[in-house]
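Schema walk-through. Below, the input block comes first and the output block second. Nothing else is stored per chain. Lengths vary across the set, and this one has 294 residues.
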Amino acid sequence: MNISTNAFTRSSTSADYVSPIIWSPELEKYIYDEMVFMRFAVNDPRHLNKPGRQGNYQLNNAYTMQALQEGIPTPISPLSFNQVTINFYAYGDAKQLTEEELAEGFDYLLTDIRNNALGSMGENRDAVIVTELMTTSSTGIYANAKTNANISTADTFNTDMIAKLKTEMMKTQAKAPQGIVVHPDQYYSVLILPNFVNASQYGSDRVIRTGEIGSYLNIPIMVSNQITTATENGITVYKAIALGRRPYIYAQKKNFVFGFERERLRDRAITISWWEMFGVSILRNESVIVMTSA
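--- output ---
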C-alpha cells in the first residue's frame, strides 16, 4: 500500500495546521450550509436501500373535456403518460492520516474531515442538480431580450427579466416561480434592483442557511457558486436558474456513510472514507428556466 501524497510531512509549511492553539472548523461550516437547490426538490425515498438500477415516473397531464350531446354516450379517449427516468450514481471521497498526525492533532483533524466531508456532500449535490437542470428544454430568458449572438456587457441581470420569468411561469403553471438562484457575480445587480427586499434587513437566518438573499416581486432570490458561466458573443455570461412547481426529482439510493479503516500496522496510517448514492432528473421542463445575463 502506498501512503497518500496528502499525508503529513514535517517539512510541510502547514505543519502547524495539525496542532493549532485556537482553531475551529465550525466557524467556516456555514459555507457548507448553503445547499440551495435541495429545498426545491421532489424528494422520493422509495428507492432507499432497495434493489433496482433506475426509477421511472409517470407525469399525468390534465385531460381535455368536451361538450356532450344528449342521448350519445360519453366518448372515450386513450390514456397517455410522459415518463421520466432517474438513474443512480455513487459519489464519495477518502482521506488518509498518519499516526504522527493523529498524535499531534487528533480531535482537530477528525473534526476538520467531518465538516469538510459533510460540506463536500452539500456542494456535490448542488453541483449534480445544476448539471441536470441545465439540460432543460424550456425556453430561456436573456437580459434585455438579447440572444447568445448579441448579448453585451451592458445586459446585466435586471427587473425586466424577473417580470418576464413570472409571466412565463404563470402561463404554463398558473403559479409564480418558487425561486431564482443567481451567480455570485450577478449578486450586485440583484442588490440594486428597485424594490429588492434584502433578507439581512429582516433578520432572517435564511441568508446563511439556504443562501437566500432576499426577494423581488415576492419571488425568493438565492445565490450559489454552483451556477455556471459561459462565453457568448465574446463575453462571460452567467446562467441563473429559476424553478417553479415540482421541477426535479431527487431520489436517495444509499444514505451518506462514513468509513474508518486502519491500514497495516507498519504503514502507521488510517483511512477515512465517505460516500452516498442518489439520482436526479428534471421532472417538468417548464418548471426550469435558465436566465442568462452579463
